[in-house]
Amino acid sequence: MTTQKLWCIFSSAANKRSSIKGIxxxxxxxxxxxLAEDVVPVVSLPALQTExxxxxxSGPQYxxxxxxxxxxxIPMDLAQQLNSVQLKKSDEHETLDQSGWxxxxxxxxINGNLRFVASPIKTGKLILPELVILRDDQxxxxxxxxxxxxxxxxxxxxxxxxxxxxTISIGLPLxxxxxxxxxxxILAFTAFYLYKKFHRTKTEIKRIExxxxxxxxxxxxxxxxxxxxxxxxxxSKENLKPVAFGVSEILKIFFSARFKIDAxxxxxxxxxxxxxxESLPESDLKKIKELFLNLDIIKFTELNHHQHFQKGDYLEFxxxxxxxxxxxxxxxxxx
Length: 335
Prior knowledge:
The protein is of the alpha+beta class. The chain has three domains: 3-31; 47-151, Immunoglobulins (Immunoglobulin-like), CATH 2.60.40.10; 218-327. Helices cover 45% and strands 14% of the residues. It is built from ten helices and eleven strands. The chain has helices spanning 3-15, 20-38, 76-79, 96-99, 174-202, 218-232, 240-259, 268-277, 282-300, 311-327; strands at residues 47-48, 50-52, 68-73, 86-89, 101-103, 108-110, 113-120, 124-128, 131-134, 140-144, 147-151. The strands form three sheets. Strands 2, 3, 5, 6 and 7 form a five-stranded antiparallel sheet that branches. Strand 6 and strand 7 (113-120) form a beta hairpin. The longest helix is centred in the middle third of the chain and has 29 residues, at 174-202. It is flat, with a radius of gyration of 35 Å.
């Protein structure tokens, strides 16, 4: 029964001067239906499989603070309607911190895949719970499946109390004592002689002033590294991925040095958010966002997902990166 039909029943009951009890019952049902329309049906949401992008770690198990990259495959008809999404724990009785997890606040949708990063903040057997996927309008569209990982315990070696050896008294003959004193005296006179000679000849030698070489500008380093990168990797489908990683790293290092931000350790969205605080023009931000979107598609997807990039796109990456570097060769001013 829709809200409109229920309202008609309520109006009809009121017009016919029905009993107060009947009117109250209909009003109560009206309120229940209205509230029910606002409740997000979490239980009926489709469950999308959570998978590892890259299940690698430094040791046999994950450690506290490791960045675990995960992906969720979203149906293409639904992914095409999404610009950005948010992840939220479906069970509100316990927070992610209490479950032993920290979730990266900027998930990304790349070629129909939802990619996000989760970091364990506790040790032992941890379960990443189901997460509700929300659209921009905060409407729930699906939920992820839970995932279990082992996080290594922090083992601190327990030191043992050292056993001290008994002291041993050593007595030297008098001739060795005299010989030692003589050697020390000779060394002292030799050091004094060399010290005086050094100061005596110091005034006769013209000192050469040190030539301070100015540090290489950041934009010069970035342009040099771009040329070396494209000289090393000529165009081919297999070389698109190392070129995409190289261009992304060179630009992030340049932005970090030029604007004093932590772009190197940030995701593309986090870096753009930091650059917005530097009052960059919207046109430049748009160019950066478009370039990094294409680079991320190549970096984080298989070859069959980005094989539509051709040689023209390969050369365009270098031209776009060089234009951005040359445009901000001096902080706050264009060259």
